[in-house]
Write a structure and sequence with these properties.
Helices cover 40% and strands 14% of the residues. It contains 11 helices and 8 strands. Strands 1-2-3-4-5-6-7-8 form an 8-stranded parallel beta barrel, surrounded by 6 helices. It is elongated and about 80 Å long.
Amino acid sequence: MTTTRGLREGDDPITMLTAYDAPTAAVVDDAGIDIALVGDSMGNAALGYDSTLPVTFDEVASRTAAVARATEDALVVADMPFLSFGVDEAESVRNAGRLLKEANADAVKIESGPHTVETTRRMTEVGIPVMAHLGLTPQHVNRLGGYTRQGTEQDAAEEIIDLAGAHADAGAFALVLEHVPANLAGAVTEALSIPTIGIGAGPDCDGQVLVINDAVGLGEWSPPFAKQFGDVRGEMVGAVEAYKEAVESGEFPAEEHSHVEEDLDDLY
């Protein structure tokens, strides 16, 4: 079973994928993926929202519980959704604790900044493992002006390096780096004693993460830094169309899909 300590001590690259429901979590777990992330990316990928901002705490909690029920070996990490942390420290810790206590998450992930260093420290102190997240932080899309690459200028890159170190010192067990230059991600990875997990951050991180829809080819669009390793959408379209044709033609249900009870012959 994957643990936060095991991630730090392992030699193999870390693999992480998002999962938002039990069937997907079971596939991720059976494949030997190290971390199942119940990401607030569910907003775009599963709930029909235009961004992650509308995702509620209850939605994350419910889906985290479903993923945890279907997972035996992968570390289950739950995203803290927008405004469930960072406003009041006590409320932030309480919400994170509920994801562990009520939804059976193993850890939480928080989109990080200067305001989350002490929150990370306090969560860690009370026994809540925290995964930090720097670079592109989608919950800040309105402030950032879009989903643009971060850390491309010297001052911004140095700030990410400093914040990465601060969160590691505060007790974070791992750090996600999203959509930053590969050489910046490499510098952060070299500087930290905790593992880094990249998404759109190049090959020099200690691991990689993708949204499950992008990895399996379920969505109609994926970001340029993602790779589709399958065509699940194409397979689903083909299966649904075949079902429709079989029903309309009378081929389904066939005799083997039905049961006749002999004692009911006199019903009509």
